[in-house]
Design brief:
The protein is an alpha+beta fold and 490 residues long. Helix content is 38%, strand content 19%. It has two domains: 239 residues, no CATH class; 236 residues, Aminoglycoside phosphotransferase (APH), C-terminal lobe (Aminoglycoside 3'-phosphotransferase, Chain: A, domain 2, Alpha-Beta Complex), CATH 3.90.1200. Strand 10 and strand 11 form a beta hairpin.
Length: 490
């Protein structure tokens, strides 16, 4: 396989102008296509240009023949499009064919009228079984291709040639399942430095944590960024993990229980126990620390700043702003009047959709066991922040918010309906009780900490829903009203 790496770094011309020429011929189409992808993080901001970070021809893309080509691009949204931080870097895998099969027609991005890909069909490659299978083969045989490096975990077995199928309805990444053996998560918005998904699952695997699928292989880019701020290591591009066939995520299981009128508290309690075991594994595998004094005040100040920004963007938050700021002031005050708050690496974006129920439990709605997945944290936040140690209350708060979401998803009377509130309260309590069974401490005992992190999460949800799913805005706003009135019963 020829190595035809093309890259553009500051002040350095590309080794071959084809990478730049290909991007120029695709820029107009990509400016239209990128904002329509669920994983594009720049929604609501004008996208006016793209610049090339790196290009690697994984399979030859020249005209002729029936075999597809595969072009790997890292592109940056230009400073004019995203001035606040210099732009985001996105990973694109582009298939190239003379004739696009009918089943791949929905994946078409463009047929360039100029440049090295002129007249050819350029499309999203991960939906093409031949090209997805090629990525798996590259992961089976570690090595380097241009600025791409492929690695395999020690002792891991990467399956040979199982049928790939892409997963749908994802928000920040693209995943491909290979048979019943493995799942490849391809990160779309990438940053220099090891990705939390790879870092945390590798650490847990080394320490024998059975509640998290281990990584089998991964790939990364060694392409330099456009400036000194990007000199912090390779970008993790994708991670291959063991697949859990027959599993269903906690969101589906909770909704099924709601529809059937079945009790879910046993499953919620078991999920709390699983969360505590994973937290214990992370604390054993990776360094821990404490927050006190000025550091705790800075944490609270960050929450307050996010509230101010969200209030400016979503008017419905403004009547509750003062009361919500009170939760963050109480958190800041902890630093001066109580013991330091322990912090460690955590999941960072824990909710029912990040928990997989495996096997059949004793109750119709309950799984035999739980596994936690997707350890990347909140994708909208910077990588350094996602890798920072946090109180375990952050994960607990995320799961508590998820029970609220599930409770009102199918309730015709909305998130403030008594039945929805009762279902959520029962499962929130069961989850915390299960957590306490393993950890020895009920998260509700740290009321100030838990309230602050749940408030911060609800504020994040308000902004997200306002921008992406306005029809769901009532769900986090209901929590905002409850959190703004802390003397009311939860």
């Amino acid at each position: 396989m020829p190595d035809r790496s093309l890259r553009l770094a500051t002040g350095t011309p590309p080794a071959d102008p084809g990478g730049e020429a290909a991007l120029r011929s695709l820029t107009s189409a990509l400016l239209d296509w990128l904002p329509r992808q669920r994983w594009f993080a720049g929604k609501g901001r004008p996208l006016t240009g793209l610049s090339l970070v790196a290009a690697t021809e994984v399979l030859p893309c020249g005209a002729g023949g029936t075999a597809p080509g595969l072009l790997h691009l890292l592109v940056r949204t230009g400073p004019a499009a995203h001035p606040e931080d210099g732009g985001d870097c996105y990973q694109l895998l582009l298939g190239v064919r003379d004739v696009l099969p009918p089943e791949l027609a929905p994946a078409l991005i463009a047929r360039p009228s100029s440049g090295p890909l002129r007249g050819r069909a350029v499309y999203e490659a991960l939906g093409d079984p031949r090209l997805a299978g090629l990525l798996l083969e590259r992961l089976r045989v570690p090595g380097t291709l241009g600025t791409l490096r492929f690695h395999r975990s020690g002792g891991a077995t990467v399956p040979a040639r199982p049928r790939p199928r892409p997963l749908g309805a994802e928000q920040s990444n693209t995943s491909v399942v290979f048979g019943d053996a493995a799942i490849l998560k391809v990160f779309r918005r990438v940053e220099p430095g090891i990705h939390p998904e790879l870092e945390l699952t590798s650490a847990l695997a080394r320490h024998g944590c059975a509640q998290v699928p281990p990584p089998l292989a991964w790939f990364e880019s060694t392409a330099p960024g456009p400036g000194a701020q990007e000199a912090s290591g390779p970008r993790t591009l994708g991670v291959l993990q063991r697949y859990l066939p027959g599993s269903r995520d906690g969101w589906q299981l909770a909704l099924r229980a709601l529809e059937a009128g079945e009790d879910f508290t046993g499953a919620a309690r078991a999920l709390g126990r699983t969360t505590a075991r994973v937290h214990a594994g992370l604390a054993e595998a990776l360094p821990t620390a404490t927050l006190s004094g000025a550091r705790l005040e800075r944490t609270a100040a960050g929450m307050a700043a996010r509230l101010e920004a969200a209030s400016a963007a979503v008017p419905a938050l403004r009547p509750h702003r003062a009361a919500l700021l009170g939760a963050f002031r109480e958190l800041a005050a902890l630093g001066g009047r109580g013991p330091a708050v322990p912090v460690q690496r955590v999941h960072g974006d824990l909710h029912l959709g990040q928990a997989l129920g495996t096997g059949a439990g004793p109750a119709p709605a309950g799984p035999a066991a739980w596994a936690l997945i997707d350890f990347e944290g909140e994708p909208a936040r910077p990588l350094a922040e996602r890798r920072a140690p946090q109180p375990v209350a952050r994960d607990v708060a995320g799961m508590l918010r998820s029970f609220d979401y599930a409770a009102c998803h199918r309730d015709p009377d909305g998130p403030d309906a008594p039945a929805a509130r009762a279902w959520s309260a029962a499962n929130r309590a069961a989850y915390c009780a299960g957590y306490a069974q393993v950890s020895g401490r009920d998260p509700r005992e740290d009321a100030v900490l838990l309230r602050a992190y749940e408030t911060d999460k609800a504020v994040y949800e308000v902004l997200y829903e306002a921008r992406n799913r306005p029809g769901w805005l009532g769900v986090p706003l209901s929590a905002i009203r409850r959190l703004a009135a802390p003397r009311l019963s939860d």
